[in-house]
Write a structure and sequence with these properties.
The protein contains 13 helices and 14 strands. It has about 350 residues and is α/β, with parallel strands linked by helices. It has three domains: about 120 residues, no CATH class; about 110 residues, 3-Layer(aba) Sandwich (D-Maltodextrin-Binding Protein, domain 2), CATH 3.40.190.10; about 90 residues, D-Maltodextrin-Binding Protein, domain 2.
Amino acid sequence: MSRRAQARLRVGVLALVVAVLLGACGQAGDDAGGSSQPQGAALRVRLGTQEFPEGRILGELWRQALAVNGYTVDLRKGVGPAEDLDGLLQEGEIDGYVAYTGTVLSIVAKEEVSGLDPDETYAKAKAFYDTRSMVMSAKTPYENKDAIATTVDYAGSHGLKSIADLSKLSSFTLGARPEFEKLYLGLKGLQDVYGLDNATFKAVPLGEQYQALDDGQAEAVNAFTTDPQLVDGDYQVLSDPKLLFGSQNAVLVVGQDDLKRVGGDTFMVDGHKQPYIRNSRHEASRAAKLLTSACGFPVHVEGVIVTVNADDIVVKTAPAGVHVVPRMQIARWLGRHGPIYSDAVLEEIFDVARRSTTWQP
């Protein structure tokens, strides 16, 4: 038997034993009132970020990471603080947002974060979201949190290595954004946890704290651990051994429904989930059992979904046991696999597959 004849025979068997999507994918969308422009497995995700520059950068990094994995991302930068983003996620206005574990716990969940290490903070934040049908991504190693910094010279001359060492000074001026004075994750916590009653608070606009150190207006300031000024080596971040400021690892928060929607076994048409993957896998399994029974030897069958008139097909993760192939590429796809059975075996399978009694268990 020639290769061309064998290929035709394989196509004939394929048509009989695998799940094939013959109409335009928009048929399912039409039933749901969707448009006639199907998106196949293409996935669109709406992400929100906080207002500060670092939040926007993290959002862009997540966008790029998702994009290379087949997602179309609508990135909404500078939406607002964590509580606003959380509200929008609950209302369905966004599908997810970039967050920090400690912020989730303290601002959104209203729980204590001081004294918790990164794993403990992540676990408690995850447990909180479990009660709200939301999930977090795996904890990233990237972290940004409040800290206390001094100049390297001041720390060296006064023997300062940790925040606790500041209590040894007779007095010092602490420069920070105005609201820091009333926050527990601020001056109040520094006094309670580290006994820094010797601190005089000086309100300094955010972004000007390092200038305050240089000008001698403050001996210590509130910093953030990813501040670019810390790179030059002129300033020293004091360690926080009692974890007053907790942990702040970056994560992505999404709704549980959205997580299911973008799974590897989901086939999207016009934004609606369709059961094509599940059905194809089921029909392939059924066909394999029936053909094996009728032929008297094992017949392996895999599901194939052939899309017709689908403008945009993106498969993020290939579903196990099912192939998604555009109609115009099916011949090439079959050709890449080459012969699977001998001519004699293939003819026997084809003959069995043609009998209506084969498909009546």
